[in-house]
Amino acid sequence: DKLSEYMQQRWGLADAGFDYNVVAVFGSQSTGKSTLLNRLFGTRFDVMDEGQRQQTTRGIWADRGTDAMPVLILDVEGTDGRERGENQDFERKSALFSLAVAEVLLVNMWETMVGLYNGANMGLLKTVMEVNLQLFGGSQGSKTLLHFVIRDHVSSTPLANLAKTLRIDMDRIWMGLNKPEGLEDAKLGDYFDLKFSSLPHKLLQPENFEQAALALRSQFVDTKSSEYVFQPEYKRRVPADGFPRYAEAVWEKVVSNKDLDLPTQQELLA
User: Taking Cα atoms as reference points, which of 236, 250, 264 lies closest to residue 127?
Assistant: First the structure.
């Protein structure tokens, strides 16, 4: 009810028909996910105090992009947070929900996480991709763009090299998925497109960060750009006034799924 009210009264999206987009963010706690969303879309999500590392986003929050952007942005609680400790049930469910409803999923990570299975949340990504395929694989009818945003890119390693490493990791994850009957030969590219961007260090290279952030923002606002991310193949084909009910139905399906109820250590040992 709250989402429906906000869509209509606060964000003015209820009458947008199919002319709107949905973006969500995925990544570890305290990697600047909310800061990234605020910079790209002009949202006002709470951000972390630079002097301390603690959880600022609890649950899933939503806002509309500024400057009349018909974009609904979901700020999702960070993974690996010490506040939840071993109880990773909600982070699995929120990650799967984001993967199911968003056209573009921003995968936020530090440069130093690239190539690390657990540090880059590849284990969690594998779990939610596997369950997503089981729950929605045969009926979703649209792809999802996984847009990896590599933060604090301060080394001399070119973005192309970092992207190559992540592509290899994603291919390896996909090959290792337990695919449902009838989808054994499904390819990663049938369900997901991969895109890669990087941002300099926000504190050490503030001017470079701003330039790169503006360039990244243009991918979401400049419809004439060859880098424009909101392509027809990612559309969920849900009218804006029906999105609250659609989101509720997806969440109910996610919450009732038992394949996400895995012990933390079991996932780490898998």
Answer: 264
